[in-house]
Records
---
Amino acid sequence: MLNKGIKFLIENKIVAGLLLVLLVGWGLTNSPFNWDLGILPNNPVAVDAIPNIGENQQIVFTKWEGRSPQDIEDQITYPLTTSLLGIPGVKTIRSSSMFGFSSIYIIFEEDIEFYWSRSRILEKLNSLPANLLPQGVNPSLGPDATGLGQIFWYTLEGRDQNGNVTGGWDLQELRSIQDYYVKYALSGASGVSEVASIGGYVQEYQIDVNPEKMRQYNIGLQQIVKAVKESNRDIGAQTLEINQAEYLVRGLGYVKSIEDLKNTVVSAKDYTSLRIKDIANVHLGPETRRGILDKEGAEVVGGVVVARHRANPMEVITNVKAQIEKIKGGLPSKELKDGRTSQLTVVPFYDRTQLIQETLGTLNEALLMEILITVLVIIIMVYNLRASLLISGLLPVAVLMVFIAMKFFNVTANIVALSGIAIAIGTMVDMGVILSENIIRHLEKAKEKFNINAIVYQATSEVSGAILTAVLTTIISFIPVFTMTGAEGKLFRPLAFTKTMALVASLIVALFLIPPFAAILFKKRNRRKKAGFIINIAMIILGIAAMIFGYLLGIILITFGIVQLLQQKNILSAAKANLINIVISALVIVYFLATYWRPLGITQNIALNFIFVALIVFLILGGFTLFRNYYTRILRWTLQHKLLFLSIPTAIVIFGFSL
């Protein structure tokens, strides 16, 4: 079946080309690197900086103002904990009792679905016995987020038109704008679970009673509380019919100002009413605070945006920033005493975008350098430019296929997951090298006239079974990693997944895409001289245009075009032309490596970095080439002196155990 699939694609190269275009396009749309895809849709893999290794937990939060931790523990934490223990899938429950509030952390088994556990908790809370908790105490479920959900912090600051800090806003004003405008607007952004306000003063009506006047009028504190509660509501009565018209009778009592509270009647006697302003002082004041938000030594007001569970953090931050741009025009401004205008502005305080982009940038650069080094090694060791291009094309296509698999299986792209691709690159290219060298060997043995499709199929079918067995052996060795649970599993399973998918993708590309394109590249062409001359001139012109627009890869096109022209004019032989092409390609790759790597430092001249990288690369590859040339002699000597040679690894093993 495997060989039938290979043969079908070799004979139907258009199908292989369409498959390649489909995989490349699909992979580009799922790429997490935020590439400009033009007309292609953008549906990237979820991106974060680090993997989420937290527990599968939910939080039940309960407030009981003014109570001691012991009261909270006895009357809220303990009863709730014992009631929540019966929820299916619960592994353990941890609780914390603080002054005025209780926090209960419910840890579920890893296989329990996140939102299913939330619905079970809500069911349990709704079915609690009536007198289990103190009157007026209502436990609430925490946001549908994880410990890594805090993706964006911001502050509200007054700025002038040049972006300089102006001030002019008190903390109460800022907190009110945050609570009643900014918070609600950002909560509407897609993927946001919660926007928590921090800092400033929460404005509230405060009634400071006079104990002496309360004693004189024989008024208790509960009477004042009852009067305030009953006055702050609307009451509906029946209807009145006057002149055949029906009127609704309502009592409007919602408090809208301090005067409404001051004039609230506490009691009435002998046609005289006692109002709150007679026995207390009513004013606006700040709610009791448990902490502040400090920025560079100054107290500020801000908020924390929490992303929803399994949401794409990068996408959520983008949505939040777009929402900030929308509400920017609605934020108030005021004129200061010095004549400047202070415009209230949302200023990012912590933005995970930079961390994510730096992480992706580091991995992107690492993958690019690995691919360049691999291409360089292939060009020099294989010593066939066509085969080198064929093998090098395997890497980017296989990486794009990994992005498709990550999107399909909801694997987040983070520093650990993408490292799996970097680790697998060395193994990925081995299959292309084995296959290409076997094809070249068969072509060298073939007669002058040969069927390229038959030779490529024969060469591929010879090694396809061995390649498949080797890759499956590596994949099976990762099965223990997939069985890991807890924090270890969340940390290492994505790496094992991406490495496995990279190997599978490289296997598919090597066995099904390289053979048909090898049949195209290695096919003998009897082109007319005029057509070849036009193609080479077009290649040179294209290279010059690329150089004008700043693309140094144009050097390769110009060189290839000139060399092909010289070969066409019989000035250069085919062997010399191939050597020149390989040398130019290797030098260009070394230049790119020196540009990205800069081993001697950014301050040093690029020429020195180029020389340093060239020395390192060519010394190492020269050593490999020397070993390859003398490998036959070394192998013959080891076979003739088996005991002497085997004593070397034996001594190394014994020495290793002794340490």
---
Amino acid sequence: MNGFVSGWRTALRIASREARRAKGRSALVVAMIMLPVLALSFAAASYDMFDLRPEEEANRELGSADALVEWAYSGRVEQSPTGDAYGSEGEPRTTPISGTELLGALPAGSRIVQSQEGIVEFRTATGVGNLNSYGMDVADPLAAGYIELLEGRAPSGDAEVAITKNAGKRLDAGIGDTIQNADRSRSWKVTGFVEIPSGLHQNVVFPSGKMPTRAGEWSVNRWLWDAPTPVTWTQVKQLNERGMVIKSRAVILDPPPPSEIAISYGEGDANAEAFAVGGLIAGLGVLEVVLLAGPAFAVGARRRQRDLALVAANGGTPAHLRRIVLADGVVLGTVGAVAGLVIGVLAAFAGRPLIEEYVIHARAGGYRIFPLALAAIAGIAVLTGLLAALVPAFTAARADVVAALTGRRGVLRSRKRWLVLGIALTAIGTAAATFGAWRVSSNVILLGLIVGELGLVLCTPSLVGLIARLGRVLPLAPRIALRDTARNRAASAPAIAAVMAAVAGSVALGVVLTADEERNHLGYRPTLVTGNALVQYYPMNPTDPAQKAPDFDRVTAIVKDSLPASEVVPIGRVTCPGAKPEESCGASPRIPEERACPWIDAPGPLSRDEQRAARKDPRCDVATYTWTSGGYGLAVGGPEVVSALTGATGDDLARAKSTLANGGVLVDEAKYLVDGNVTLEIYDPSTDGTITRDRQQKLRTVTVPGYAMTTGTPLAGTIISPAAIAKVGFGHATYGVVVATSRMPSQAERDGLAAGLRDLDPGLQSMVETGPPASSDDPTLLILAAAAGLITLGAASIATGLAAADGRADLSTLAAVGASPGVRRRLSLSQSGVIAGLGSVLGVLAGLGASAAVLYAFNQASADMWPGEQPYPIGVPWDSLAVVLVVPLLAMLGAGLLTRSRLPIERRRMT
């Protein structure tokens, strides 16, 4: 045992001396190991800072209060321990609860402070806009942690507010300035700047109970509760009986056991997608550390081949040689791990404000480093550094001592058994990943991906040898680069594999995120053509018969002054002759009985077998899980509205216009059409109430010409012609305009439109179709691409530097035979291109295969669910992929520019 320890102590001392003596090469090796450790430690520290602890989450939601109370229902409530999910069979309360009434239901000694949230329209710097608004006494101790005062003082009374700095930019207001609501009926003085740590958005804070609301406007009325004692789960359940939903600090910090929770609402369920993606990242990250360290130690061992041969010549055993090379892995791996951890954590700390402001849009919980994860990363880095040095260690132990002392290397050929093993592992990994995707097992998928990528690594030397044959037809510099790449496969193959791992991880995750984004887009039903606008009139008091609609000629003028409008077309709604103002009439297309999905009106939830049957039934192929920014329901219009509403083109547009001109109706699906006609079900005041299947069959109907459009934006409702409405017996009146624009209106133009409409009539509402949330502002994909690009560039540069250091003797030979100085620059450029180019191509292929397996697993998980979810499309992140593919060119350019042209002259050492 003492001999073993002494042997390792000697090996470590030799490795440390060698590291200090060869500072340049050691720095390159350390940098190679440090790159993934830096990235992983940055991610770990950032995650820990933004992963709020239960106490921090409670402070964000409750301030310093003991609980948050919302008296939401008139009957018994069942809620989750956190209060984020709840349900009741009672009726929702439609009027706010007074503080006196609430205190009467709480224990004696309680104190409450009203907390409001909602949306309020303000005059902005460019017009009118909606801002998130809160009603809270900023100066009250219970608000500490929920809202923080940054500058100035807390607002008080009816005429003061505090704002966030982001809101100040949009409102063009600061401390001491005055802001107004949309109709200028009220104004408030800004007394201070505040911050809401849970959301760094455009927020306005009113004193408690002073936030303006109006009928029909969304708002939340809750109360912070300072209880005499901590609010227990038993108290929460007692208050649930009266219809209250409680967020209790004590329960959040000490949740009840599952046996005491009637309904969990899925809060404890793991997110399968996050787990799978997280496992994929972690597994590929570990593999990347191994692959990045491998070429460094291989080149280091090759550089020290003569020194190791001297040890062998003086009686050193193969075990001694292996230990010396392995000690290199331990020493340099430790230095690289420590340097990567320190720089990664410092980068996470320095980048925290930018991540808070531009990525998370919320404050971090604190400066933390996730010590357990960092220790694991450091341990893995050192261990994998040791493992990466195994192959060079065994290679050095088997080296020919005479050949090493004389400086001969010979030509290395890839053994066929390694190629066969690589192909077998690639096939096994592909099969395992496919099976894991089919069985929806993230662990099997990860195992398959790692095995498959290791198979590609084993195939890389043979692939390098195959490509090296192309050197016969290439100029001098690339021919030498390919020859050296093939001769030094112990160094070049791991370097190529390292680049492949970096690119594969980035491409795989990029494809998954792109697919998620496209899935979100596919589930979105736009109201209009993107960039077009819809102005609609909603009477402020629908029951007042004297209330008149505004002059739509003036509405049109405001629209043309505010937006880049190319066409403004009036649109109407159905009127009900002889009905009261609050009563309505309408018509709805009827689905023929034989085309109706039999499961639509099934009572209660469907069983798994029923869901499978519905999923296979083509009549039930409905996109149930969709979302939209709005709609127009049943719109009355002539042929002129079609283009502005849908953007249809060609023969489809002509047929749609012809249908409306002939007294027909436009529907969104062809299933409503029978022989070119649509049957309309008629609704009027006499049909109020629940429409059962039997009542639906007895409704009055009218048959009119119909058409389902096939181009442009799908209809967000039904367009019915004035003639069809007259045939039904109803009337129609203009209630809005559709605006076709020449480009997407800016936020300033939209605010200006809202201001002009508000000044004309408060009942005028506008919306601009912007599509689903734009992903162009989300930096995730570009960050991934940049990270992969930097790792690829670093791996290629460092590997090229090591190859150049290893090839100094060849450069000396070139100088001796009269090669020009530019040959060295072109040689370095070619070596970098071979490593980065081949690694990037293999990485793209591996990443696309890995992402396909993950996405297929996601789709399989919901394959038998009905109503169905949008499947994940397999897309390609062209932006990030373009960055990755440009990296080899950058690596070549950098190598060509930074390499000195002067060829070295080395003196051979005498043995």
